[in-house]
Amino acid sequence: MIIPRVLAETIKGKIINSNKAVIIYGARQMGKTTLSNEIIKAMNLKTIRINADQTKYIDIFSSRDVYKLRSFVHGYELLFIDEAQRIPEIGINLKILIDEIPELKILVTGSSSIGIADRVSEPLTGRKWTYTLYPLSLQELSAEKSQFEINEMLEELLIYGSYPEVYTTKNRKEKEELLIEISDSYLYKDILELSSIKHPGKIRDLLRLLAFQVGSEVSILELSRTLGINRETVENYIYLLEKSFVLFRLSGFSRNLRKEISKHDKFYFFDNGIRNVLINNLNDLNLRNDIGQLWENFIISERIKYLNYNRISMSSFFWRTYTGAELDYIEEGKGKLTGFEIKYSKIKKKPPLSWTENYPNAEFQSICKTNYQDFLINQIAQ
After folding, report:
1. Cα–Cα distance between 379 and 382 in angstroms, integer?
2. Where are the domains of the chain?
């Protein structure tokens, strides 16, 4: 089963209507190749497909040789390069193709922005469109499922996440096996191959610690002491995990008020299933004591997908004071400041008093099981 992706029509339009390269980032097993193939099929252009995992293509697309590149793509309308982060100097060679053969359409995927973003940013300035593909979003699922059906499968999404293959697999045991396979075989692959990692085992240990601390402020110093590695190494590993689309961070919101906490960040996973398999807990909700963490990770990660897919420019934070007042999620943008309380089972009708006192013009919403689809699908909270 192929789930239509939100980005499909946008990317198709960019390929057809511009002479810039289109780059799709996203973790492995996220469906980048499937999405690309669907786009290519719909456009019906004469396409040459390159899998950069195959070394025979690396020489050509690292050559900086205009004649060699031109000869290779001659007669084709679209060049598709899959897993382009494996090709050295891919950016400058794509620039040559764009400048020398402007009529050639170019579509590129990369599993990690570590290996490709730095190489293409400067050479392709003004010559590229970039998009990130995440696990299946509620917005995507809502195109085929009713609100009732989404509510019915909510528990599975909270436990197993929404990697495309995991979602389309109906058997729970097979879902678990797939998550273990993704975690063991794919999660760190690009990091280990593209970066100099002194303690590869520590990355998984770090992820487990962060998985247990979802929704809580994280001390890098404490992580360093627990893992037995220096702070700089911990920060570097977290940076690599962010660039590989495993997790993301929220910083504390502050207007420099002395009572607001902004020293530590919070970390969330793009997929609940990955978070759960890392802590070896795929139990049903009635057997868990971390429903609040699951719900918060799910809501915030879905919101990040929604904002990015719909090109809505918002800055995201959390908010807490030294006196204990807090809001789980903050958005700032388009001249608006909104605080959100995220609770699984009940709506909190009023924000903390200190929030309204310090930010009298800010808005407030409480997100729970009864209204989360409005927040993540129906666009009421922009």
Report:
1. 6
2. 7-132, 157-376
Q: What is the pLDDT along the chain (382 residues), one digit of tens a residue?
A: 778 999 999 999 999 999 999 999 998 899 999 999 999 999 999 999 998 878 888 888 888 999 999 999 999 999 999 988 888 888 899 999 999 999 999 999 987 666 566 666 677 888 999 999 999 999 999 999 999 999 999 999 999 999 999 999 999 999 999 999 998 887 777 677 666 677 778 899 999 999 999 999 999 999 999 999 999 999 999 998 998 899 999 999 988 666 776 778 999 999 999 999 999 999 999 999 999 999 999 999 999 999 999 999 999 999 998 888 899 999 999 899 999 999 998 777 789 999 999 899 999 999 999 999 999 987 544 4
CA dihedral 366, 161, 108, 112 (to 10 degrees): 90
Residue 215 three-state SS: coil
Cα–Cα dist 312/303, whole Å: 11
CA distances from 272 to 38, 97, 257, 358, 370 (A): 27, 40, 34, 34, 20
Contact 254, 262 (CB under 8 A): yes
- Domain with residues 7-132, CATH architecture: 3-Layer(aba) Sandwich (3.40)
The CATH architecture of the domain made up of 157-376 is: Orthogonal Bundle (1.10)
Please report the sign of the dihedral spanned by the C-alpha atoms of residue 271, residue 273, residue 276, residue 280: negative
C-alpha torsion sign, points 179, 180, 186, 187: positive
Please tell me the distance from the alpha carbon of residue 104 to that of residue 64, in angstroms, as a whole number.
Answer: 17
Strands (E), the chain: 21-25, 47-51, 78-82, 105-110, 128-132, 217-218, 247-252, 265-269, 315-320, 326-333, 336-342, 363-367
Token look-up 């040789």 returns 65
Helix axes 66-73, 90-100, angle to 10 degrees: 70
Burial of 175 (0-12, 13-18, 19+ CB in 10 A): buried
